[in-house]
Amino acid sequence: MAITVRFSSAFQDLTHGKKVFSVDGDRLSKILVDLERQIPGLKTKLLDKEGKIHLAYHVILIRGDMQELCHDLDCKIEDGDELVIAPIISGG
Amino acid sequence: MNGYQGKILTVDLSNRKACEEPLDEAFAKKYVGGVGFGVRWLYDTLQNGDDPLSPKAPLIFATGPLASINFLGSTGISVTAKSPLLGLIGDSDMRGRMGSSLKSCGYDALVIVGKADSPVYLRIAEGSCQILDGSLLWGKDIRETQELIHADPQNKNMLVTSIGVAGERLVKYATISCELQFFAGRTGTGAVMGSKNLKAIVLGGKQKTPVSDMDKVNELVKAISAQIQTDGTCDTLSKYGTWNTTGPANLNGILPTKNFQATTFSEIDKINGDAMLSTIYAKKRTCPGCPIGSRRVVQGETPYSLSPEFAGPQYETVASMGSLLLNGNPYAIAKANEFCNLYGIDTISAGVTIAFAMECFDRGVLTEKDLGFKLNWGDPGGILKMIEMISLREGIGDVLAEGVKTASQKIGKGSEQWAMHVKGMEIPMHDPRGKKGMGLAYATSFKGADHESSMHDEAFQRENVFPELGLTVAMDRKQFEGKAALVKTLQEYWGVMADVVTICKFPMCPPRPLKPGPLVELLNAVTGWDFTVQDFVTTGERIFNLARLFNAREGMTRKDDLLPLRFEEVLKEGGSAGESYPRKELEKLLDEYYRLRGWSAEGIPTQETLKRLGLN
Lengths: 92, 616
Prior knowledge:
The complex is a heterodimer of chains A (92) and B (616).
Chain A lengths: L2 E5 L4 H4 L4 E4 L4 H11 L3 H5 L10 E7 L2 E4 L12 E6 L5
Parallel strand pairs in A: 1-5
Antiparallel strand pairs in A: 1-2, 3-4, 3-5
Chain B lengths: L6 E6 L4 E6 L2 H7 L2 H12 L13 E4 L14 E6 L6 E6 L3 H7 L4 E5 L6 E6 L2 E6 L8 H10 L7 E4 L2 H4 L7 E3 L3 E3 L4 H7 L2 E7 L9 H17 L4 H6 L5 H6 L16 H4 L1 H7 L1 E5 L9 E4 L16 H6 L9 H14 L3 H16 L5 H4 L8 H13 L4 H4 L3 H8 L9 E2 L2 E2 L9 H9 L38 H19 L14 H12 L5 H21 L29 H15 L9 H6 L4
Parallel strand pairs in B: 1-6, 7-12
Antiparallel strand pairs in B: 1-2, 3-4, 3-6, 4-5, 7-8, 9-10, 9-12, 10-11, 13-14, 15-16
Helix pairs in contact in B: 2-20, 2-22, 7-21, 13-16, 19-20, 20-22, 20-23
């Protein structure tokens, strides 16, 4: 499976400026294991103490024209999907 | 009275007299402060149809009780007036130190009425208010004004709040600025100040405001500050400021682009958070008592020289002077922001009005002859020229200075279709097709399209965001269902009450740490009251309804709770592709929203509702 993960600005320190990663996995939990290998420290920032997606961030699943949120780590991912990890909008 | 000085200063510029009046404790508890005081006094003072720029119309600077402590920007102030842009309630919250400085002079609020027969400025200190000759200040931008005032030894170290040239020329979206950094940006309060021939207000005092339980205040401040610094919810705001929103807004397909014709910008990589950090960013700056530091200082030499003295552009301006105009040049965005600050006009209203003019030019409704030059999409020179012409009311700028609603009515030829406003207030930088609650908030806010009147849908896509407010159900940002109740509660808790206690709205936005419980505890520790969260929200509801009554008296009804027709068009691409805001869906939401509010089908508060809120 080929999954593309894009990071917004908020993660540039951890990714050293690299914005796009290719990973493998059919669940968000598996993808994060692969990502953590490539980006040490990612899970500490993206997940809260209970291991859930941190309230400050959204993991957005893009599949063709469809775009929706991954609400938990059990979120199903399919070949060709794109994930975007970004801070939530709280007003400007 | 803890949290208050117990005095209001009223200045009548026509008679050149100032007088102190006591602040009644029962009144203070009922309306608390800030916009609460402002709306009540406007309602009592004005009558239907009164001209917002007449001497009779008051300009109200009101503090909240939290201005007595220095925490999360609570030292700011609310500026309220009948808006010359809307003809309805106008209000803008200004961070900075004007609120705490007014308190230090011994006053909870400053009410200005009348009109001086020549330009003046006010110097207010403990126990004194002088009305001084301001003729040398007239015609100066906000930097020159501050420099000239500070050049007088008697004004040394005093806090300067002023209008720019746009306020003098009654541009309908003129701002009021404090210390070159903070702005009462929206609804045109700067024009109200200009109409009174009042150029500036200078404050200096050292009087303490009594606080009920300072130990408790310190305990709460310490706990909330620690959470802000450690729980990660403010990290991106601290690093990028509100530039952290630009990329996600584009991703979600809510970034206004080409006058709301689209919601994704092809040059997003030139203006997102990282692009701004690598081009114009100089350093961060913080508001008084805030550990976040969301404000940016910018710098640059070419192609535009940028002054670090001013506040750098925030997200709203990055979009309104950037994607909205197809301008992908961060230096030009920052320069446009600097021009708006210097002249004293609101960057959102200015951006939307220029976008309207660009679309008029694009469609041949305005010509090179009308404008004096070609106003093409994305042209930085054209943008800067337009800001100058609007601020000085030169040429077509005189028409555009009236705001996009009036300008489109004057220009005609079908241009009303692409004049993006609600009740005359230009739409902020969040396309409601991708966030349906924000659309309802724009339609029902007492000051038209205001992105700070209700929290944003994106934050409520998870469960249990605010259990204390009964907001526990997760709602997709694109769904209509459930948004009436959500918006009603958030308008009261956040839209109104943050401007009543005058604290920054950012730390209150979920998932950030300033939750309803601790905020109300803080209010109680300052005042000695025993408010519950429900009391707090009900106070917001009372003020919201009173503002609605004011507007209804001006003739506003359900027919005005509208969104522009453009939002009925389906978005073709981006993260909100396929979304629109059909009128029939808005009408359904309004039915539910009015019912929840206890309003008639025409959107007027019923007698029963007014009685419940103590407004009958």
